[in-house]
Amino acid sequence: MTDLIALYVPLALAAERVIAAIAGYFVYKDADQRTELTYNLNPVWWGLAVFFAGPILGVAGYWLIHHSGLARPAAAAESP
Fold it and tell me: Model confidence over 62-73: pLDDT tens digits?
């Protein structure tokens, strides 16, 4: 049993890092296409934040800041 744990724990951690890298790449591409920089952060920093925070927490934070209804209430007032 401990042999299986010793095998699967590193594999699960490696898979989580690969998923975090993929999520960070897509967040970077989305942030790079945006004209405004939220909190004056470069898209590279958004990608790294998602990578280090993990795919679930990082993408959720990016979505809340950029795509949710909480994102920019002033921008909705500026739309014609």
Answer: 888 887 777 655
